Amino acid sequence: MGRRTGIALAFAALALMLVASACSSGGTGLEAGERTVYMAAIEPKGTTSVDKEPFPTAPLPAGDGYGLEEPDADGNWVAETYRWLPGEVTVVQGDRVTLEFFGVNGASHPATLEGYGIDFEVKRGQVTRVEFTADRAGIFRFVCKVHQPAMTGTLVVLPA
Questions:
Q1: Class of the domain covering 27-43+82-158
Q2: What is the pTM of this model?
Q3: Count of H-run helices and E-run strands, the chain
């Protein structure tokens, strides 16, 4: 085992011990505060050509979350998907949360934060702010209603 790996494992073990200690003492030791998370609606694309890789023939899942552009006259084809970046947000119960979404790709992303009943829309070139208090612990999804199944993120609310 290399020195860096050993140090990383030691830090991981220390973190686990601290969390276990906090949990066994009746709390996580986490305090609520204000958190702003900067996010983006993105569309990663990969391009290749049929002389390097054959064009896929298997059907994609239903929805507009994944896409394939058939080979052009030169044999070039594209695979694409829509994503939230980052795809996971972690906050503490009681936090006053601001999710600040910036639309990079895709004209419109009508979305919802499940479990909180918050609907919002992210548009290209615009910032959409979603503000709420994370008043209950759990795991909740934020979902673009158009680009399923791929454009789904996770909000993790840790107990205070």
A1: mainly beta
A2: 0.78
A3: 1, 12
